[in-house]
Amino acid sequence: MLLSSSGGVDSAVQLITVLIIFILVLFITFYVTKWMAGFQKQQMTGTNIKLLETMRLSQSQFIQIIKVGEHYLAVAVSKEQVTLLAELSEDELKDVDDKATEKDFSKVFARFKDAVLQNGNDSTAKVQDKDENI
Length: 134
Prior knowledge:
The protein has helices at residues 2-44, 98-101, 105-119, 124-132, and strands at residues 49-58, 61-68, 71-77, 82-88. It is an alpha+beta fold. It folds into three domains: 1-45; 49-97; 103-132. It has a four-stranded antiparallel sheet, with no helix packed on it. It is elongated, with a radius of gyration of 26 Å.
């Protein structure tokens, strides 16, 4: 009788130990991934080259507007090559601000949540229309 009860306690202690180690590994993985993302973002950001906008034409073809120094370029990007389409002036572009390309996801999510709670699941089109106006 004494043997069986201590075996159950040992099993419970082992289970708790394994759960604690698992949770610890999850937290370490989360913070290392977050740190690596920040490090890579810092490495990728340059002061002279910025990608302003991308539009997909097909699965592997894109048109991108890039700011290089003080020049704005429209380029076609495919799997094999990059082709300069045009050099643009700042007057020809809409919302050249860097802030115009950034979206606050918490605002988008809050609007989506409010729309779903008020009107049901079919209101996602209204939220998408509002996002395009941001």
